[in-house]
Amino acid sequence: MSPTPLEHRIRALVRLNGPMPVFDYMALCLGDPEHGYYMAREPFGQAGDFVTAPEVSQMFGEMIGAFVVETWERLGRPAPFNLVEFGPGRGTLMADLLRVARRVPAFLAAARLHLDETSPRLRAKQAATLANQSLKPTWHDRLDTLPEGPLLVVANEFFDALPIRQFEYRDGRWHERVVGLDETGVLAFGLGPATLPADAVSPRAGVPEEGSIVEISPVGVEIMTALAKRVVAERGLVVAVDYGYAGPALGDTFQAIRAHTYVDPLGRPGEADLTAHVDFTALAAAATHAGAATHGPIEQGDFLLALGLAERAGRLGADKDETARAEIVSQVSRLVGPEEMGSLFKVLAVTPPGVVPPGFPLASGP
Questions:
Q1: What are phi and psi of 214, to 5 degrees?
Q2: CB 112 within 8 A of CB 137
Q3: Could you give the CA distance from residue 265 to residue 360 in angstroms, rounded to a whole number?
Q4: CA distance 309 to 74
Q5: pLDDT tens sequence across 61-117
Q6: Which has the closest alpha carbon to 111: 133, 143, 91, 89?
Q7: In b/e form, how buried is each residue of 180-216, taking b as 16+ CB within 10 angstroms?
Q8: Global pTM exceeds 0.90
Q9: DSSP E strands: which ranges in 29-140?
């Protein structure tokens, strides 16, 4: 099989500049303007490469909608405010959220809808999905273009797609992992000259062995810090839902998926989704350092059930036939089952100090 167009480009860049950090490789594969995965492919749904929670069931977006509206109430009903989604996919989650929000007209009257999306193709999908909504979106490709004022941010499967840095433990030091070329000219992992100080890796991550890998998401921490500062200064909410772990931890979570199957991350650049598991402890620490209160992370299953997913499923299936009810049960199992999305996916909320959103038992942070 011949190399992809993006692979040709990456090989040329490596020959010209030397091996590139995993961070740069991941950013190119996902965001290259011409051949990047999110710019050129349809990733979502059964016909795509993966299925996200909003695509599993309308109930996911409805629960997020109820959560956001209730948190807006607990924030004192700020008006106007910016309703923001990072990584809005096809617009499915936002459409379901807004359907719930119609029950609280004051919320919709105060909301100004903003979508953070870099892909022109996905922007067109979102526009079509949200065409009949009363709120018309404004699109952004940078955080700093969001207007001033209170903001309520939803980020579902957003942080996992941000490029990461990887460091591998060799000969008593952490060396940055890079992508270069092997002796046959094929893309291969290697180690670069950059190193990570030993004390930069928390002892709580465990004792490293030869070949251990640690991952850092500098962009994720930067974005969470900026959002948390705004939440504190202007009031608001950030809710992040993603697959991940409560770090620090050692391990290689850099992965690629194509047609619902895990594949080699270096195999077909630009044709597979590249992600890494989210270190929720690092995100929470960034928000706390910015002065915000953090809630969670808790497992997605616990979060959705606390918000009333089971009750919503019962109402949704009350007038349905047996086949439709069985499908609803299957959707609930997919969202909350420990072997499905329920345990691997976590939920972290960030608010101003003193505000506790629904679904979380206790507040932490300042």
A1: -125, 145
A2: no
A3: 36
A4: 21
A5: 999 999 999 999 999 999 999 999 999 999 999 999 999 999 999 999 999 999 999
A6: 133
A7: bbeeeeebebebbeeebeeeebeeeeeebeeebbbbb
A8: yes
A9: 81-86, 111-116, 138-140
